[in-house]
TrEMBL record, chain A:
Family: Belongs to the ABC-4 integral membrane protein family.
Gene Ontology CC terms: plasma membrane
Record's keyword terms, sorted: Cell membrane, Membrane, Transmembrane, Transmembrane helix
Protein name: Putative ABC transport system permease protein
Pfam families for this protein: FtsX
Top-level lineage group: Bacteria
Keyword Cell cycle included in the entry's annotation: no
Biased amino acid composition, Basic and acidic residues: 76-87
Residue ranges constituting the ABC3 transporter permease C-terminal domain according to the UniProt record: 274-395, 720-835
From TrEMBL, chain B:
Coiled coil feature spans: none
ABC transporter domain span: 28-258
Lineage start: Bacteria, Bacillati, Actinomycetota, Actinomycetes, Micromonosporales
Keyword annotations from UniProtKB, A to Z: ATP-binding, Nucleotide-binding, Transport
Any matching Pfam family: ABC_tran
Organism whose genome encodes this protein: Micromonospora phaseoli
Superkingdom, natural source: Bacteria
GO cellular-component term (any): membrane protein complex
Full protein name: Putative ABC transport system ATP-binding protein
SUPFAM superfamilies, sorted: P-loop containing nucleoside triphosphate hydrolases
One annotated GO molecular function: ATP binding
Length: 844, 263
């Protein structure tokens, strides 16, 4: 066996170039995989570590009873929605036997404003909370200055202080749901040892300021410390006897907080992992192709080994060892590059507007082990089928001239591929007809169907295009088309990687454009206001509630309609509930009522977004943090106010305020008087600019921006796809180079009978362009069909209609073909450089 | 495992000495038929051939292109399957063996020399020579290795790769590989076909001495009468049948027979 080992090692060395390319594919896949794992570990590890450290002194937490559990989709809450606690809860907790410390923790919205503009951008949320006096229970630690004691004094986290260049003694402003307040920074704090709590910007207030600034009488939670020597379990048991409250054990609380902090990252991790899997898949196709060609080229050598007595097992072993060697070396390099490349990935992720935690990368042995195992085993598995083919070489092959791959495509193979394709199409059709996601699973059969039908498709495409190619490029075109048809299996497997890549690009393009359109449609069709004021973040309303009145007071402003949004539980599920002025809103935004009258909202009714007019007259129960609202359904509207967090239910603004406390406005719709001069618009713009937490948009801008969150997401996806496509193109270059090697005799003959180097290059380029075109078109066609079916079935209310971005897909097609030609440049150059005689006479 | 048939094997056309002492045959075909394709397009490459290749002798197989001489050798060596009939190496009936047993037989009891050198490019000369033995997990005895190396005068070339060797040297390595395990029979397929005259003569000389010095059995397919002249017997094959067998050939007598074949 050591002989096979040595032989394998030497054969890898002997064909360095080829294995470099194959290795690069594996290396990139592994690098991407390990970078993803390290990145998610680092983000999660850092956040989790900080939370565990900050909450270490808290033995238990008392919170309100759960109303609704967190959801998974966009717009769903990331943590449980809970009923408010009683205002006297902290005193009751403190009297429980064995409780050493009990501290009220109020948490609300507070945004730091410096010189009229708010501090911090990106996905972190703005949090206001009270400074907990007990250092054992306070998750924050003072880094400098002193704690806030009087109303108007605040402590900020170190990340805020860094961003705004603030130090103790500086004067700032704080925007909360109850208004804008002047404040003096008395200190800078850290969250455990981190600059800030994960994905939060925190302003810390004295207890005295809480009820006015955060508009809450009752604490959000009570932090509990158990007396030394007391039995923790017993104390917890006694605490659980408290009415209208839930006791959470310290470690459980830490875990919940860690999950909540890392769940936005989890979404990202899943996406990155999906791309890593695609990268590995494409890598596997390339490895398969390379080994298939290598094995085919070494047919005579395999035959010789068989003739002089190598067993099948030994030949199989030889190829597998070779694959393992390449896989191992490439994986090791990939691991190093991946760990080093985490920085690049952070940059990529940062492009999507997702700010990440700073700090060192956490490289766990699990990440390394998983990536290494995937890299090596993927290589070996991909080489397995070619290896088996090598082992099955009849010894007589040693004595024959190397036989080319059969030109005939096996009808059985094509037939079974067609059957699978039919299954996939039928599954998709039934799924669409019945709106059943289960049937949609059958769609997956399209992948093996493409693998099986590939050779037939390529042959047909080559034959079909032969005429066109001839007319376009003369005899070179004919030869190029003929070459494709000459080895349908190899052509098809080369095409597969590219097909996978373009199919992915297409699916995501359709998904993104459908989502953008879904988010934008309501705005496009319903918006009547001339101007719109939006919040600083899409997740949370940040518009100063006095702004609406101030805009309304400007000359030439006809109407200002404010929309506020709060979370409520409807039928056990957390939903966005909109609060509107039922007389002002309809003149600025057409909700398209199909039954009832929105004016009746002012009597405490609720409007439901939907298409079923029979809902009218029913009763709806909405549970809020402070109370439960039972309201008659007085209107059914076909449209919501648009955007990612569009409410599905509307109530009167006053009703909402009464149910959840005072809210900031999420959106303002401003209607100017007919014939108003441009000055009116400028006045509004100036006023909005001077108000932190609000942004000015014209109607056209608002329509265009209503899908912008997705645009950032799409940039990120595009970056990932670029990487996947790059790996696929490596495969095209590799396979083409190998195929040219294999055909060197034939190409030499062409040179001998007078083809110029330029013509030879042209043939190679044409061939690859043709193949890329076929692969990309099929990839796009399949993805359009099945992407459409999948989104139609699973999109639900969030993506009601499928939008195919044709122009984008056309660009994809052109780019795929162009990239294929670029990938062919190197092998084309190489083949044209080889002297005529050598090509004709090259033995292998 | 079936044993060798008792009946005396007789070449129907010549009744030559080759078939008389079948018990001493190194390899043998009995009623061998090899047909390629089926129906009307079928080509019969071997048409009921019965022949024995004597042990310890050097036998040449000659015939015009397409006569079936190569097919005959391939089937006798277990590289190809007969359509009907039986092939023996020593007392072993090849048709009774599965792929694994055939492989073992090839590496332990048969040696091969091919026209196109057929060395493994990534291995040194010495590793190529030892390959059949290392494949079966053995090492050749130092004595056996020394013997073939000195016989073939390869001493200073043992650590070179095939690409660093001349055609003649490569073929000497291939011959050494075939001989080192002292197989029951060596099959050589046009071993001098790719060589210049001098190197070809050298190779034939080595094969001859292996027979004379070590009683090696060798079967060689060739269409060069000068090469055939080194053999003890020449078998002439025409249209898939054994046409004639000649003992103690000379180049001239072989040429005469070939002329008589009328092709």
């Amino acid at each position: 066996m050591s002989q096979m080992m040595r032989s394998a090692a030497r054969s890898v060395l002997a064909s360095r170039g080829r294995f470099m390319l194959t290795g690069t594919a594996i290396m990139l896949s592994v690098a991407f995989l390990v970078a993803t794992l390290v990145l998610s570990d680092s983000m999660r590890g850092r956040a989790a570590g900080d939370i565990a450290e900050a909450l270490a002194g808290t033995d238990a937490v008392v919170q309100g009873v759960v109303l609704g559990e967190p959801g998974g989709g966009p717009g769903d809450p990331e943590r449980s929605v809970r009923r408010s606690l009683d205002p006297d809860i902290t005193e009751r907790v403190a009297t429980v036997d064995g409780v050493d410390g009990a501290a009220s923790q109020w948490v609300g919205f507070a945004k730091l404003v410096v010189d009229g503009s708010s501090v911090g951008t990106g996905t972190a949320s703005d949090v206001g909370r009270n400074w907990v006096a007990d250092p054992a229970l306070n998750p924050f630690r003072l880094a400098s200055g002193r704690p806030p004691t009087e109303v108007g004094e605040i402590v900020i986290d170190r990340s805020l202080a860094g961003d705004a260049g603030l130090a103790p003694g500086d004067v700032v402003q704080v925007l909360t749901t109850t208004g804008m307040y002047d404040a003096t920074v008395t200190g800078v704090a850290t969250f455990a040892s981190a600059d800030a709590a994960p994905l939060q910007r925190t302003v810390l207030l004295p207890d005295k300021a809480v009820s006015a600034w955060l508009d809450t009488a009752a604490p959000t939670e009570v932090l509990v410390g158990v007396a030394e020597g007391a039995d923790r379990a017993e104390v917890l048991g006694r605490l659980s006897a408290l009415t209208d409250a839930e006791v959470i054990d310290g470690p459980d609380h830490i875990r919940t907080m860690q999950d909540a902090a890392t769940s936005p990252l989890q979404f990202l991790t899943v996406f990155l992992l999906a791309f890593a899997v695609v990268a590995v898949l494409i890598g596997v196709t390339i490895i398969f192709n390379t080994f298939a060609l290598t094995v085919a080229r070494r047919r005579r050598e395999s035959g010789l080994l068989r003739a002089i007595g190598a067993e099948r097992r030994q030949l199989l072993g030889g190829v597998v060892i070779e694959a393992a060697l390449v896989g191992t070396i490439a994986t090791l390099v990939g691991l190093v590059c991946g760990v080093a490349g985490v920085g690049a990935l952070r940059w990529l992720v940062g492009l999507a507007g997702i700010t990440l935690l700073t700090g060192p990368s956490i490289v766990s042995t699990t990440s390394i082990a998983v990536a290494a195992a995937v890299g090596i085993s993927a290589t070996v598995l991909a080489a397995w089928i070619p290896a088996r083919r090598a082992a099955a070489t009849p010894p007589i092959e040693a004595l024959r001239e190397s036989a080319a791959e059969p030109r005939v495509v096996s009808p059985a193979r094509t037939a079974s591929g067609l059957v699978l394709a039919a299954v996939a199409i039928a599954g998709g059709a039934v799924a669409v007809a019945r709106s059943s996601a289960t049937w949609a699973l059958l769609v997956v059969a399209i992948v093996p169907a493409l693998v099986l039908c590939g050779p037939a498709i390529v042959t047909a495409a080559a034959r079909g295009s032969a005429q066109v190619a001839r007319r376009a490029a003369g005899v070179c075109g004919s030869i190029a088309a003929g070459n494709l048809a000459a080895s349908p299996r190899r052509s098809a497997s080369t095409a597969l990687a590219l097909m996978l890549g373009t199919a992915m690009v297409t699916m995501f393009a359709i998904f993104a454009s459908s989502l953008t359109s879904a988010v934008g449609t309501d705005v496009r069709e319903g918006l009547q206001a001339d101007l719109v004021v939006t919040s600083a973040t899409a997740d949370f309303p940040t518009i100063d509630p006095t702004l609406a009145g101030r805009i309304a007071a400007l000359p030439d402003v006809d109407e200002v309609a404010a929309l506020s949004i709060a979370e409520g539980i409807v039928a056990g599920k957390a939903e966005a509930i909109g609060g509107i002025d039922p007389t002002a809103l309809p003149t600025t935004f057409d909700l398209d009522p199909i039954a009832g009258d929105l004016a009746d909202l002012s009597d405490g009714g609720v409007a439901v977004v939907g298409d079923d007019p029979t809902l009218l007259g029913g009763t709806l129960a909405i549970e809020f943090e402070r109370s439960t609202l039972e309201a008659p359904i007085v209107a059914v509207v076909a449209r919501s106010t648009g955007g990612f967090e569009a409410p599905l239910y509307f109530v009167d603004r006053a009703t909402l305020d009464a149910s959840v406390g005072r809210l900031l406005d999420a959106l303002l719709f401003v209607d100017l008087a007919d014939g108003a001069v441009a000055d009116a618009e400028e006045d509004v713009r100036a006023l909005v600019r001077a108000t932190p937490g609000s942004f000015f948009e014209t109607r056209a801008e608002h329509v265009a921006n209503s899908g912008s969150e997705i645009a950032a997401f799409r940039n990120f996806i595009d970056g990932m796809l670029l990487l996947a496509s790059f790996i696929a193109l490596l495969g095209v270059a590799n396979t083409t180079a190998l195929a040219i090697n294999e055909r060197s005799g034939e190409l030499g003959l062409l040179r001998a009978v007078g083809a110029t180097r330029r013509e030879l290059r042209r043939i190679v380029r044409l061939e690859v362009a043709l193949l890329s075109f076929v692969a990309a078109s099929i990839g796009i066609a399949v993805a359009v069909g099945f992407g459409w079916a999948l989104i139609d079935v699973t999109g639900g209310a969030e993506i009601p209609s499928v939008v195919v971005p044709w122009s984008r897909l056309a660009v994809t097609l052109v780019v795929a073909v162009a990239a294929g030609v670029v990938a062919a440049a190197w092998p084309a150059f190489r083949v044209s450089r080889v002297p005529v005689l050598e090509l004709a006479g090259r033995d292998r | 495992m079936s044993s060798r048939p008792d009946s005396t094997v007789v070449d129907r056309q010549s009744g030559s000495a080759l078939s008389a002492n079948a018990d001493d045959a190194a390899a043998m075909l009995v009623g061998a038929v090899k047909r390629y394709g089926s129906g009307r397009s079928a080509v019969v490459a071997l048409d009921d051939v019965t022949i024995a290749f004597p042990a310890g002798k050097f036998t040449a197989v000659m015939g015009p292109s397409g006569s079936g001489k190569s097919t005959m050798m391939h089937c006798a060596a277990g590289l190809d399957q007969l359509t009907s009939g039986r092939a023996f190496v020593g007392n072993t009936d090849l048709s009774a063996l599965d792929d694994r047993e055939l492989t073992r037989l090839r590496r332990e009891r048969i040696g091969f020399v091919f026209q196109a050198f057929n060395l493994v490019a990534t291995l040194t000369a010495e590793e190529n020579i030892c390959l059949p033995m290392t494949l079966s997990g053995r090492r050749p005895s130092v004595a056996a290795l020394d013997q073939v190396v000195s016989l073939l005068r390869l001493g200073d070339r043992m650590h070179h790769r095939p690409t660093e060797l001349s055609g003649g040297q490569q073929q000497r390595v291939a011959v050494a590989r075939a001989l080192v395990a002292r197989p029951q029979v060596v099959f050589a397929d046009e071993p001098t076909g790719n060589l210049d005259t001098r190197s070809g003569q050298e190779i034939l000389g080595f094969l001859r001495s292996a027979v004379d010095l070590h009683h090696q059995s060798i079967v060689m397919v060739t269409h060069d009468p000068n090469a055939a002249a080194w053999a003890d017997h020449v078998v002439f094959v025409v249209d898939g049948r054994v046409h004639d067998v000649m003992d103690h050939p000379s180049a001239d007598s072989v040429i005469d027979v070939m002329k008589g074949l009328g092709r």
